[in-house]
Amino acid sequence: MHAYLILAHNEFELLTNLIKALDDERNDLFIHIDKKVKNFDFALFKSIAKKSKLHFSSRTDVKWGDMSMVNAEYCLLHAALDSGKKYDFVHLVSGVDIPLLNQNDMHKFFDSNAGKEFIHFGHKELLPAEFQRVAYYHFATGRRNYFNRLITKTESVLGRLLGINRVKNLTVQRGSQWFSITGDFANYLLSKEEFVKRQFKHTFIPDEFFVQTVFINSPFKDNLFHREFDNSHLGCLRYTDWQRGYPYTFRNEDYDEIVNCSCLFARKFSNAVDSEITKRLYERIL
Predict the structure, then answer these.
(1) Model-wide pTM > 0.85
(2) Over pLDDT 90: what percentage of the chain?
C-alpha cells in the first residue's frame, strides 16, 4: 500500500484530476487544504475517489518560508500514520503536481525499488547562504517581498556578528521538500516531530531542511536511491524547472521535455496559465 500526502491551496480543477490519477485500491490519499481556503467542498472532493480511501487532514494556515509548511506536512503524516497502518511508500506531492506514470507502472517501479528513499539533496555540505538560513534566527517569513528580504539579510548579518550557531555539531542538509519515502522512514520522521519543531523554529524556509537533516542523521541514511548530493531532480524523481521560474509553470510546448524526463512526477502546472498541457498529460496516463 502507498500513501499520498497532498498539499493544496488553489487550482482545484488540477486537484480533481490528481485525485482521479491516483485513485487506485493500492493507494490511500490524504489531503491538506490550506486554512486560508474558504468554502471548500470537502464532501464533493471526497466523492471523486472511487477506489482509494481519501481523507482530509487537520488544517493549518500555511505561510511561505516559515514553520507552518512543516506543520502542514506533519498534519498529513499524522493523518496517514497515527492509525498504525503500514505503508510501503509515502509520497508528498502538491496539488499542482502531475504523475507521469499510470498506477500499474508506478507500483511496478516502487516494487522494484523496495526499501529505497527518494529524497532530493542540494549539496554535500551547506552553501554559505543555506547555512545562514538555518544557523541564525529568522522571523520575516510569509511573503516574498523587498521588505522581508531586507529583514532576512539583516538577521543574517546580526547572526554572524553575534556568533550565533543554532545547529552547532548537528549535520544539516537541504533539498526539495517533495519526497517518496518508505513507510518505515515516514514513521521515524514522525517520531522526530518534537526535535524538528524545536530545531527548525525560526529557520528561513525550514521545509527544505527538516527531512534531509533527520534522514542524514538516521539509520536510514544508506538507503538513498540517488546517492549523489548533486542537486539533481533524480533524487526525488520530481521534474521541476528552477531556471525559468520559481519554479517555472510548464506550458504545452514543454510536453516532449516532460514525458522524456525520467521522473515520476512533474511540477508545477496551472490551468490558468496553460490547460492544454495538463489535459495532454492526464490523457496520457488515464
Answers:
(1) yes
(2) 85
